[in-house]
Design brief:
The structure is a single chain. With 170 residues, the chain is mainly beta. It has one domain: Immunoglobulin-like (Sandwich), CATH 2.60.40. Helix content is 15%, strand content 51%. The strands form two sheets. A six-stranded antiparallel sheet has the order 1-2-3-4-8-7, with no helix packed on it. It has a four-stranded antiparallel sheet with strand order 6-5-9-10. Strand 7 and strand 8 form a beta hairpin. It is globular, with a radius of gyration of 17 Å. It starts with a helix and ends in a 13-residue tail after the last helix.
Length: 170
């Protein structure tokens, strides 16, 4: 009985530690032949405890109609009212960079008091390449009710290289 318990519980205890590989979805509109893409989720980590991944804040990439964006998705209890007009503050291996917001924000109640907010920022191929080669990226998305600050480390940042060829092609 003890062996069965250990055999079931031990593998489950590592589920939260695994890195999920993001998925790239590309589409072409059959009416006007415009291309679009989405690449997500890239799971963020705590800046104080890098091994503590957090699916409450993820990033991804979305493009189409000549616009390429990096988006931050926050899903938790309580509104932050994230607003892309504040820009996205980043420290890329200690170098300061601020991404300009697109003006696009999305907010939804998922269930009960759990909310989901998304904010979109302009991204270029050069900046995406810089992110993919970094060892550590710390970012802060700001809202009218606070901010969300998370980190990405080389293990998560390497995934960005897969989306780089699609940036600027829509």
């Amino acid at each position: 009985m003890k062996n069965i318990f250990i055999g079931l519980i031990l593998p489950l205890s590592f589920v939260g530690c695994a890195t999920v590989e993001p998925k790239l979805t590309e589409k072409t509109n059959p009416y006007n032949q415009t291309r679009s893409y989405k690449y997500e989720p890239i799971i963020t980590a705590s800046c104080k405890t890098p091994s503590r991944l957090n699916t409450f804040v993820t990033i991804g990439f979305l493009g189409g109609g000549g616009l390429d964006t990096l988006f931050v998705r926050y899903k938790n209890k309580g509104w932050v009212f994230l607003d892309s007009s504040f820009g996205l503050d980043m420290l890329i291996d200690g170098e300061v960079l601020k991404l300009k917001g697109t003006g696009l924000n999305d907010r939804n109640v998922v269930y009960g008091s759990t909310v989901e907010e998304e904010v979109y920022y302009h991204i270029t191929k050069n900046i995406a390449e810089k992110l993919s080669k970094a060892k550590k990226v710390q970012f802060r998305a700001t809202g009218s009710n606070g901010y969300v600050e998370r980190c990405l480390y080389a293990e998560q940042l390497k995934f960005i290289s897969k989306v780089i060829p699609t940036i600027g092609k829509n």
